[in-house]
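Example record for the data management plan.
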Amino acid sequence: GAAGSSHRPAPIADFDFDSALSLAEAIERRDSEAVASLLARCVSDAERLSATSGVLRASSGSSALHLAAAHVAAAHLSSAHIESPALAIPETIHSTLVAATATTEAGTAAWADALEAVDAMGRTPLLVAVTSLRVDMVQWLLDNGADPWARDGEGRDALQLLQAPDACELAPDELDRGVKRDVRIRDVQHG
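Corresponding structural encoding:
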């Protein structure tokens, strides 16, 4: 598994700052209805691409997928989170991004770019999900084409991040095994 050519998400161009802030906050609250509503307000394909693959949080360099993959403290969750399927937000991001492209090929390329985009710490959405101990999101990202051997800004892949001292204190054994299994299965399937 060689590391992919990761890139930074583009700054928001066609999606205005206030809308980007609102979308970031809705994703962080895990409010799938608000996320869908904000993305539905995009009036052009360029706006939809900006909203789904551009930087929503300038301080962290995070795109919509990075925010969806991150751990969120219970105090920041909205009541909508309890009623929404856990992966409704990344699925909405995916379908919006693909719909914003003129061809299936362009949609596939835009999605691949979103999966491999890196935040300010050099992490892809998959690596954010791993460090956030989000097994559901790790599996979803792997199932949807994320590179299991992507490396962060310090050169660590998903398995190495799980073996970091702070991850070992937090990760239950079954989570550790589950993520390792998912990454190994993906490597065998695509290796």
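Summary line stored alongside the record: The chain is about 60% helix and 0% strand.
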